[in-house]
UniProtKB/TrEMBL annotation:
Chain ranges passing through the membrane: 7-24, 36-58, 70-93, 99-116, 128-145, 151-170, 201-217
InterPro entries according to UniProt: MmRce1-like, Rce1/LyrA-like_dom
BP GO annotations: CAAX-box protein maturation; proteolysis
Keyword annotations: Hydrolase, Membrane, Metalloprotease, Protease, Transmembrane, Transmembrane helix
Ranges where the CAAX prenyl protease 2/Lysostaphin resistance protein A-like domain occurs: 101-192
Organism classification: Bacteria, Pseudomonadati, Bacteroidota, Sphingobacteriia, Sphingobacteriales
Name of the protein: CPBP family intramembrane metalloprotease
Keyword Transmembrane: yes
Pfam families reported for this sequence: Rce1-like
Gene Ontology MF annotations: endopeptidase activity; metallopeptidase activity
Domain of life: Bacteria
Organism expressing this protein natively: Sphingobacterium paramultivorum
Amino acid sequence: MKRKVNYWAVVIYYIIAIVCRYLTNKTELLSTLENPYLKSILTGAGPALGAVFVFLVFKIKPALSLRGNYKSMILPIILYWVFPVVLINTVSYLTQGKIPYLAVSSVLIYGLLEEIGWRGFLYQEFKALKPLYSILLLSLLWFLWHLNFDFTPVQFFFFGVLILGSWGIGKVADTTGSLIAVSAFHSLNNFFPAINGKSGAILGLLLLVWVVALVVRKKMKAAAPAS
């Protein structure tokens, strides 16, 4: 039997996600919070809240987990969270004398909250559609969720980045089944507000290591005997 998209779940998920985004980004709801990192994290909480709600109400079993298809959660944590935190903080300390561990950690947590919704729920629902339609529709909803409606060339470029991200992070989700892994790839776009030689080298190294790890993971899965 061909699987169908649960459109009611999608609509309710998206309403929760975008209402939360509006409240946290376009109102004074978080104005009393003094911790900038907590405020940043909460702006990405809508997709997670929406996904958890529809999982419970519609009795949908999540396809992704923190551990994913790894035998232990230690490996994805070290590879996808500890590694970028140590790398970015080490480079920052050596070049600027600063250790921005809170900033880096908050970016990863923010990415995790978003990915619980985008890849953990919506990407899985849209698998019932043709791949091109799935990527474009998810990217459009993801773009509109950011509530940037000035439609400048920068925003059109950002939309293109989201299309690429929807495709690429979807591959990560399929290969690892891990929310930790997908949140790390998501965070590549958020680690540095501006790209220069140093930040570009860091992002390039992270991407290289993670892509190699994914290739190895995919080959290991293909070589594993069927249970």
